[in-house]
């Protein structure tokens, strides 16, 4: 657990300092110029605003105390579960999220859906193509996610074998991008 926290803290620190490209950006064929800040015509909403537009997802972000992360300038890619995906969680999953004893659980869940850097759908497609059908990217927890083709779309599979499809269109933000997924990815464990 301590290693997990230190890895995440180091990733957040590097990302917030704007230190070049991340391994995910390089794997997805994304260079640092893509993430060099807001460009003319770039989306005006940040990740915090986009995620907050879905009340339950916004509730998770707040419970984890990650509003500042998503308000910051460091770019992130968020794999955001749909409302239907959140509805599939066990009854009571949202009860008591604001309690301190649930913060670590909520934070781990969210971090398993966050990738450092801005990784667009086209970047994921190229990475899968160049990887001969699959690409591996790391979440903020350091856990690998495997991206593969699934029909005419993409599928994300976690270390524990659980998978989700990327659905809908990406939502660009001033500090990253949101890809909607149809299943909540449980932390590897």
Please give a structural write-up:
With 189 residues, this protein is α+β, with helices and mostly antiparallel strands. The chain has one domain (2-31, 42-181): Roll (FAS1 domain), CATH 2.30.180.10. 35% of the residues lie in helices and 23% in strands. It is globular and about 45 Å long. The protein starts with a helix and ends in an 8-residue tail after the last strand. Residues 23-42 are annotated as: Disordered. This is FAS1 domain-containing protein. Keywords: Signal. Residues 44-185 form the FAS1 domain.
Give keywords.
23% strand; signal; Adhesion/Biosynth-related; alpha+beta; FAS1 domain-containing protein; FAS1_dom_sf; 35% helix; 189 residues; disordered N terminus; FAS1_domain; 7 strands; FAS1 domain
Summarize the structure.
The protein is an alpha+beta fold.
Summarize the helices and strands and which ones pair or pack:
Layout: H1 2-17, H2 23-27, H3 47-52, H4 55-64, H5 67-71, E1 76-81, H6 83-87, H7 103-111, E2 114-116, H8 121-130, E3 134-138, E4 144-150, E5 153-157, E6 163-173, E7 176-181
Parallel strand pairs: 1-7
Antiparallel strand pairs: 1-2, 3-4, 4-5, 5-6, 6-7
What is the domain total for the residues?
1
Number of helices: 8
CATH class: Mainly Beta
The profile of the biggest β sheet is:
7 strands, mixed
The unreliable regions are 1-22, 29-41
- Choose one word for the global shape: globular
Order of helices and strands: HHHHHEHHEHEEEEE
Helix % is 25-40%
CATH topology: FAS1 domain
User: How many beta strands in the DSSP annotation?
Assistant: 7
Q: How large is the share of residues in beta strands?
A: 15-25%
- Average pLDDT value? 80
Protein name: FAS1 domain-containing protein
Region (Disordered): 23-42
Organism: Sphingomonas humi
Domain FAS1: 44-185
């Amino acid at each position: 657990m301590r290693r997990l926290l230190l890895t995440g803290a180091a990733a957040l620190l590097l990302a917030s300092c704007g230190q070049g490209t991340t391994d995910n950006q390089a794997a997805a064929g994304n260079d640092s110029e893509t993430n060099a800040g807001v460009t003319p015509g770039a989306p005006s909403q940040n990740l915090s605003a986009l995620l907050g537009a879905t009340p339950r997802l916004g509730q998770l972000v707040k419970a984890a105390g990650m509003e500042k992360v998503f308000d910051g300038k460091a770019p992130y890619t968020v794999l955001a579960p749909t409302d239907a995906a959140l509805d599939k969680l066990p009854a009571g999953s949202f009860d008591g999220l604001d309690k301190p004893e649930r913060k670590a659980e909520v934070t781990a869940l969210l971090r398993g859906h966050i990738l450092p850097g801005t990784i667009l759908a086209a970047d994921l497609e190229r990475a899968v193509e160049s990887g001969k059908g699959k690409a591996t990217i790391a979440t903020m927890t350091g856990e690998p996610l495997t991206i593969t083709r699934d029909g005419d779309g993409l599928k994300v599979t976690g270390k524990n074998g659980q998978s989700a499809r990327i659905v809908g269109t990406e939502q660009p933000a001033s500090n990253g991008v949101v890809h909607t997924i149809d299943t909540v990815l449980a932390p590897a464990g």
